[in-house]
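User: I've been trying to design a sequence by hand for this structure and keep getting stuck. Would you show me what you'd pick, starting by listing the structure so we're on the same page?

Assistant: Good idea, let's start from the same input. This is the structure you sent:
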């Protein structure tokens, strides 16, 4: 984990998949304890994808995208 602009940065490598649903990404990276919590924070507009608020819970996150939540930045590769 590294820091840029005061945000902790994580990297998630997609294995054998072309995308991961946003709520699953939050759970997989440990930023949310459950998929339900992930869906809730997305619905509340607390998650950014590529710098824009994302409210679609199952938004397909693909390699090259950046997700931000709760001071954490996740780079998907």
């Amino acid at each position: 984990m590294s820091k840029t602009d005061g945000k902790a940065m994580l990297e998630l490598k997609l294995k054998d998949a072309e995308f991961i649903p946003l709520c699953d990404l939050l759970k997989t990276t440990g930023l949310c304890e459950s998929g339900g919590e992930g869906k809730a924070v997305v619905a509340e507009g607390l998650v950014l994808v590529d710098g824009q608020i994302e409210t679609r819970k199952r938004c397909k996150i693909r390699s090259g995208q950046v997700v931000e939540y709760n001071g954490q930045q996740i780079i998907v590769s």
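That's my pick for every position. To get oriented when you compare it with your attempt: Residues 53 and 62 are 16 Å apart (CA to CA). Residues 2-76 form a domain with the Structural Genomics Hypothetical 15.5 Kd Protein In mrcA-pckA Intergenic Region; Chain A fold (CATH 3.10.290.10).
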